[in-house]
Automatic annotation (TrEMBL):
UniProt-recorded name of the protein: 3-dehydroquinate synthase
UniProt xrefs under NCBIfam families: aroB
GO biological process: amino acid biosynthetic process; aromatic amino acid family biosynthetic process; chorismate biosynthetic process
Domain of life: Bacteria
Length: 352
C-alpha cells in the first residue's frame, strides 16, 4: 500500500493507494459513523457500489446513484442529494463516501461541505483524472455560466484510491486522466514528462499507471500544501485550463472529456508561451503524442469570440485581464496577465 499525507490547515488527511482497498474501508476509518451515504454515478454503481456496501458490518449504509457525466454537477442534483440525505436521516455523525470520478468527488464533496454545515466525507476516486480532483479539498458544482462557480474548500477525512477500479475505465477516460498527469509533469517534473512521452496508452500496465499516478499525486500535494486557498502558486495547477474550461462550456458538458479539453488547452498554452515569453518547449513531441494516442481537437475559428467571452467570465479573470498560466520552460510556470484582445488574436493564430 502506498501512503501519502496531505497537510492542510483545515484538516490533514491520508491518501491510501492500494488495489482492492475498497473491500476494507471500515478498517481505515478512525471512528464509527451513525450512517453512511455512498454517492456514486450510474456507471460506477453497477461495478463497485455493492463491494463498498458489503464491506460495512451494519445496515445504515445507503447508496444514491446519480447520472454519469459533467451535467450532473448541477444545483438540481446537489439539492436532490440533500433531500436524500435528509430522507435517510443522516446527521452530523454521518459519513458521505464519494465513489467515482471527479464529477462525483466535486459534487458529493460539496454536499458534505454543506449538509448540516459540513460532515465528514471520504474521496474514493475511480478514474485516473480523479487523482487530481480528490486531493486538495476543492469541491464545487457548475453554474450554467461557468464551471465550478459554486463551491468551497473542504478537504476529505481520507482519500482511498483503489487502483484496481481503473481496470474498467474506457480508453477515452484513460486519455482524459493522462492529460492531467501531463499537466503536472509540465509544471514541475521534466523527467516525468519524458517518461510520459515515451509510453503508449494502449497496453499500459497497471503497474506503470500506478507509478504515473503516484508521481502526479506528489506534485499536486506539494502545490496544494504550499497554497491551500489558491492565492499564489496553486494557480499553476490551472495550466491548460483557461481554454480547457471554456471549451467544455462552449461545446456543452460531455462533448469533450475534461482531460481532452485540457489537452487542447495545454497546446494553446504552449503556443502562447512561445510567443509571449519566447519559451522553447517540446511542442512537436507533445502534438505527436496526443495524435498517436487518439486525442481529438474540434476547435474551429468560428468559436473564437464565444470562447473569449466565456474566458472573461472565468474565475481566473481579474480586472478584465486573463491570468493565464504559461511556461518559461518545462517545470517553469508563471502567471501572465493577458488582455482579451491579445488572447483573441493568439486563439485565432493557434486555430489556423
Ligand atoms: P467523471 O467523474 O465524469 O468520470 C468519467 C466517466 O468515467 C464517467 O462516465 C464515469 O461514470 C466513468 N467511470 C468512473 N470511474 C469508472 C470506472 N472505474 N470504470 C468505468 N467507468 C468509470 O469525470 P472525471 O474525468 O473523473 O472528472 C472530471 C471532473 O473533475 C470535472 O468536473 C472537473 O472539473 C473535476 N476536477 C476537479 C478538480 C478539483 O480539484 N476539485 C481537479 C480536476 C478536475
Ligand atoms: Zn483539470
Amino acid at each position: 500500500m502506498e501512503r501519502l499525507v496531505v497537510n492542510s490547515s483545515l484538516q490533514s488527511y491520508t491518501i491510501y493507494m492500494e488495489e482492492k482497498s475498497r473491500f476494507k474501508i471500515p478498517k481505515l476509518l478512525k471512528k464509527e459513523y451513525s450512517s453512511i451515504l455512498i454517492i456514486t454515478d450510474t456507471n460506477v454503481a453497477k461495478l463497485y457500489s455493492n463491494d463498498i456496501v458489503s464491506s460495512f458490518p451494519h445496515d445504515k449504509v445507503y447508496v444514491v446513484v446519480v447520472d454519469a457525466g459533467e451535467q450532473t454537477k448541477s444545483l438540481d442534483t446537489f439539492y436532490y442529494l440533500h433531500t436524500k440525505a435528509i430522507e435517510y436521516g443522516l446527521d452530523r455523525e454521518s459519513l458521505i463516501i464519494a465513489l467515482g470520478g471527479g464529477v462525483i468527488g466535486d459534487l458529493a464533496g460539496f454536499v458534505a461541505a454543506t449538509f448540516m454545515r459540513g460532515i465528514d466525507y471520504v474521496q474514493m476516486p475511480t478514474t485516473i483524472l480523479a487523482h487530481d480532483s480528490s486531493v486538495g479539498g476543492k469541491v464545487a458544482i457548475n453554474h450554467e455560466k461557468g464551471k465550478n462557480l459554486i463551491g468551497s474548500f473542504y478537504p476529505p477525512i481520507l482519500v482511498l484510491y483503489d487502483t484496481d477500479t481503473l481496470k474498467t475505465l474506457p480508453a477515452r477516460e484513460v486519455r482524459s486522466g493522462f492529460a492531467e498527469i501531463i499537466k503536472e509533469a509540465m509544471l514541475a517534473d521534466s523527467d516525468l514528462f519524458d517518461r510520459l512521452m515515451s509510453v503508449s496508452l494502449e497496453g499500459l500496465t497497471l503497474e506503470a499507471l500506478n507509478l504515473f499516478i503516484y508521481s502526479g499525486l506528489q506534485i499536486k500535494i506539494k502545490l496544494v500544501e504550499a497554497d491551500e486557498k489558491e492565492t499564489g502558486n496553486r494557480k499553476f495547477l490551472n495550466l491548460g485550463h483557461t481554454l480547457g474550461h471554456a471549451l467544455e462550456a462552449k461545446l456543452g458538458y460531455g462533448v469533450l472529456t475534461h482531460g481532452e479539453a485540457v489537452a487542447i488547452g495545454l497546446l494553446f498554452m504552449i503556443y502562447v508561451s512561445e510567443r509571449e515569453l519566447g519559451a522553447s518547449l517540446p511542442t512537436e513531441t507533445l502534438i505527436k503524442w496526443f495524435k498517436k494516442n487518439g486525442y481529438i481537437n474540434p476547435l474551429t475559428l468560428d468559436m473564437v469570440d464565444e470562447l473569449v467571452e466565456i474566458i472573461l467570465h472565468d474565475k481566473k479573470t481579474v480586472n478584465q485581464k486573463i491570468q493565464m498560466i504559461l511556461l518559461r520552460n518545462l517545470a517553469g510556470p508563471i502567471i501572465q496577465p493577458l488582455e482579451a484582445k491579445k488572447l483573441k488574436s493568439y486563439l485565432q493564430g493557434f486555430i489556423v
